[in-house]
Amino acid sequence: MLRGMSLSHVLVTGAAGAIGGALARELAARHPGVRLSLVDVDEAGLARAAASLPPSSPVTVSRWDLSAPETLGDRHDALVASHGPLDGLVNCAGIMDVRSIAGMPWDAGRRVLDVDLVSPMRLMSLAVPAMAAAGHGVVVNVSSMAGRVPLRGCAYYGGAKAGLAMASEIAHLELAPRGVHVVTVYPGPVASALERGARAQLRPSLIARLMPTGDALRIATLVARAISRREPRVVYPPLYAVADRALGVATWVTRRFSPAPAS
User: Fold this and answer.
1) What is the pLDDT of residues 154-186, one digit of tens each?
2) Within its chain, how far is the Cα of 257 from the centroid?
3) What backbone phi and psi angles, to 5 degrees, belong to 207?
4) Where are the alpha helices (DSSP H) in the chain?
5) Architecture of the domain spanning 9-257
6) Could you state, in order of their start, the residue ranges of all structural domains in the chain?
7) Which of 233, 231, 232, 239 is nearest to 213 (CA)?
8) What pLDDT digit, counting tens, does each position of 184-233 carry?
9) pTM of the prediction?
């Protein structure tokens, strides 16, 4: 639990996914009584995520399409009117479309940018002012190691995640003195539908086969620990933490050996 504070209302985007669902369960376990507002485009996945929470956890599930960031203002306001202000925001929703920049249709690339960058920024703009005014709150932004090192086929995804990461790191600096703790998460591959879909878009290669894949439950535990200890970032799996510290070497490796997209 965040020192001296319990969370009362947390919005989790991408809650139907492996990482989002694991984060929701971890928050419910560590903050008894917290209301979780779970959103995703996958309604069946949302129902499964809600069913996995403790029976005593108040939960709301809603279908939100983050590829339409212009809708989020009304959705946020309705959520707050129904269940009270947010003191937690987890930006976990994300899509990954692995294609060369020359082969990516603009509409598909724009959708990646909207879901992975524009909508998380919009949600921060909606939720953070009230947290700062109240003097407490938590924001978790799930970026990616693809936003730290150049990977072929990830111009849009990596660009979006790099933008979110930098905004999140800056938000941490700005908001910490106002009682709002911001955690930036840098996952490498984590077993999930997103990870399986991305691998399917890559040409077969040795490095693609050797890339370690992490566990959603473990990353959720690390994020919860970062919240409680007021740590600014999480990098996972452990090999990628090494790459993060030796960014120049990691960049050279990915430039030389990252697999090409299939299209």
Assistant:
1) 999 999 999 999 999 999 999 999 999 999 999
2) 26
3) -65, -35
4) 18-30, 43-51, 72-83, 106-113, 119-134, 155-175, 193-200, 206-210, 216-229, 238-245, 247-257
5) 3-Layer(aba) Sandwich (3.40)
6) 9-257
7) 239
8) 999 988 766 776 665 566 666 655 566 667 889 999 999 999 999 999 99
9) 0.86
